[in-house]
Each structure stands twice: as structure tokens, then as C-alpha cells.
Design a protein that fits this description.
The chain is of the alpha/beta class. It has twelve helices and eleven strands. It has helices at about 25-30, 90-95, 115-120, 125-140, 155-165, 185-195, 205-215, 230-235, 240-245, 265-275, 300-315, 320-335, and strands at about 15-20, 35-45, 50-60, 70-75, 95-100, 145-150, 170-175, 220-225, 225, 250-255, 280-285. Strands 1-2-3-5-4-6-7-10-11 form a nine-stranded mixed sheet, with helices on both faces. A two-stranded antiparallel sheet has the order 8-9. Helix 4 packs across helix 5, helix 6 packs antiparallel against helix 7 (about 205-215) and helix 11 (about 300-315) runs antiparallel to helix 12. The chain is globular and about 55 Å long.
């Protein structure tokens, strides 16, 4: 990892950090010494809260204009979205304008306002914040720019609702987000398979907790680190209807050894698209791969995801055949252990 540091920037660009990571679409960037620089800015959302976002560029360069596409990334329920700078590096390399959308309550230096974060942990708030941040960035571009929305884990759930609400989204990528079940169904499946999962205490204890959350949906009672208010907004609100309402290209990647989002959820979404006669979903499943896209030996399977995602980007006309072939060759040469 490269050294990180603060620097002085114009108003609205208050934080910069060069990082070099090796994850989805960043594996080739790492092998080729590609450094990413992020410029942070805040957007004031409807209730007056400032939400951070980070615009990426190659170190020493300017962010792409956006005519090749603008990418918005929504992360999961833990940590800062800045950890996705590496995963998004490949899209920067392909000439796309990339924006990481932070959750409210998280500052650029990684510090967290626990009260603000706890008070704002519900699905509607995350959706509204993402829409506001996207609107601020899109206002600076022309309406013809392709808009690629990427959601990982919980961010995939949010991305589904955002794409349904803002039809400027032209392409959608879901990473480890399932999508075909509600969180309640996913948790019931995981606990039924492993009664010790999450320390919940088994299926009967889980159902009792569900009943308590239904009875007190706005309570600040904490369960598994989140308030009831947050759980009530997610547990029985699956992303499936939002996703089925979309006619844009959708890419879904899921590991079949994921113990946070069961693979059955992703398979259910694939089946729902098929049953509805919709052909705009491309589903790719990775054997033996967990929620972080690692196999049982701890080896990253993300280059495999990268290859499939590159093919999808080509097929939906976001990159050309020559770009695809060139980047694919880089991925193969960077990971001979996976591509023999």
C-alpha cells in the first residue's frame, strides 16, 4: 500500500489519498504500478447532514470527464467506502469517472460519529443519501453520460432501490448481494444451516427476534450491532421487485460459499428474471468463494470476477473489443496461477 497523506485542495476537495490495492478491477492496476488519487467532497442532503464522496483519478492526473461513463460505488454496512479505491482502479484505467459514496457519519480520516451512524441506519436514509450525492455529481455532466451503479453487499440492496428511483442509471453491478430473497429469508436460511451463526441462538431465537422487531419497528434497541429501526427497514423489503422493474443491463456476482449472503438468494434472483421472461441479468457464480470473494485457502478469486465483468462491459458496449482483449491479457498475465 502506498503512503497516504493529506493535501490542500480547492473548496469541496478537502481530502486526498493515494492508495494501491489489489482487488476487483484493481489487480492489473497493482501489477502495473498504477496509483489512484481520491478527491473528497461533501454533499448536504435533505436533512442538512453532510455526506462524503470521493472522486478517483490516476495520481497526478485529472478525473475522467465522464463521456466514457460515470461510476457510483455503494459499499456494505461496515467500514469506509475508501477501501474500494483499489477495486475501482480498473474502471479508472478504462477512462471512466468513478465516485465512491460514503455512508453518513464516516469522515475521510476514517473516524466515525457513532451517534449519527446509529441514528441514520435505515434503508430509506441510505437510498436518499445516495440519490442526493449522485444528483450533485451528475449535475456537473451532460445527460448523455452512461451511469454505472455498483453495489457491494448491503450496497447492492441500496443500489437496486436507487436504480429504480433514478432512471439515469444505465447499468447496474451487484457484488455479493444476493437479491432474490429478503434479509429475513436469508438469515433464516443461514441460521437453519448453522444454528451457531452470528451467535443468534438458533432458528427459534431468530423467529422470536423477528417478532420483537415487527412489534417495535422504530425502536433503538440494538441487535447484531444495529438498531431495530435499521433491521425493520431491511428484513422484509427484498430488492427483487426493484430489480425486476429494470430493463437496463445488470451483472450479479456471487460466491457459493458466502456465509453472509447465501448463494440461494442470488440463484433466486436469476430464477425470478428467467420466470419473468427478462434477459437483462447476467449471473456469475463462483464455487468455493466466500463473501469477500476468497476461496477456502484464502486465495482471492476476484480476478475471475474481473474477467467476467470485463466481458459484460464489452457486451453492453461500455468498452470496445480491443480494450477488452488488452485488459483481459493483462489480467491473465498478472494471475498465471488462475489462468493456465
Amino acid at each position: 500500500m502506498a503512503d497516504s497523506h493529506r493535501c490542500l485542495l480547492p473548496a469541496g476537495l478537502l481530502w486526498a489519498m493515494p492508495l494501491l490495492l489489489c482487488l476487483v478491477l484493481g489487480s492489473v492496476a497493482c501489477r502495473h504500478g498504477y496509483r489512484i488519487w481520491s478527491s473528497g467532497r461533501t454533499v448536504t442532503v435533505a436533512d442538512g447532514v453532510e455526506v462524503w464522496s470521493y472522486l478517483l483519478a490516476e495520481e497526478g492526473g485529472q478525473p475522467a470527464a465522464g463521456d466514457r461513463g460515470i461510476v457510483f460505488y455503494l459499499g456494505g454496512s461496515d467500514g469506509s467506502v475508501q477501501s474500494a479505491m483499489g477495486p475501482m482502479a480498473g474502471l479508472v484505467m478504462l477512462g471512466m469517472r468513478v465516485v465512491l459514496v460514503e455512508r453518513r457519519g464516516i469522515a475521510p480520516d476514517g473516524t466515525v460519529d457513532p451517534e449519527l451512524l446509529f441514528q441514520s441506519e435505515d434503508k430509506a436514509t441510505r437510498v436518499h443519501d445516495a440519490l442526493a450525492v449522485m444528483a450533485a455529481h451528475l449535475a456537473e455532466l451532460t445527460s448523455s453520460n452512461p451511469v454505472l451503479l455498483v453495489g457491494a453487499s448491503e450496497g447492492a440492496d441500496i443500489a437496486a432501490a436507487v436504480a429504480a428511483a433514478d432512471r439515469r442509471v444505465s447499468h447496474l453491478v451487484l457484488l455479493g448481494g444476493g437479491g432474490g430473497m429478503s434479509q429475513a429469508e436469508e438469515l433464516a436460511l443461514l441460521v437453519g444451516r448453522d444454528p451457531e451463526a452470528y451467535g443468534i441462538g438458533g432458528s427459534e431465537a431468530l423467529q422470536a427476534r423477528f417478532e420483537d422487531i415487527r412489534a417495535h419497528p422504530d425502536a433503538e434497541t440494538s441487535w447484531l450491532g444495529h438498531p431495530y429501526r435499521r433491521w425493520s427497514s431491511y428484513l422484509w423489503s427484498p430488492p427483487t421487485p426493484y430489480l425486476l422493474s429494470l430493463d437496463i443491463p445488470v451483472f450479479l456476482a456471487q460466491g457459493d460459499a458466502d456465509t453472509a449472503v447465501p448463494v440461494e438468494s442470488a440463484r433466486a434472483l436469476d430464477a425470478a428474471f428467467s420466470d419473468a421472461g427478462k434477459t437483462n441479468l447476467r449471473y456469475r457464480e463462483y464455487p468455493g468463494v466466500d463473501h469477500t470473494f476468497r476461496d477456502g485457502s484464502g486465495r482471492s478469486a476476484l480476478p475471475l470476477v474481473e474477467v467476467d465483468l470485463l466481458a459484460w462491459l464489452r457486451d453492453v458496449n461500455l468498452i470496445g473489443p480491443d480494450e477488452y482483449a488488452e485488459h483481459l491479457g493483462h489480467v491473465h498475465s498478472a494471475h498465471p496461477e488462475l489462468f493456465r
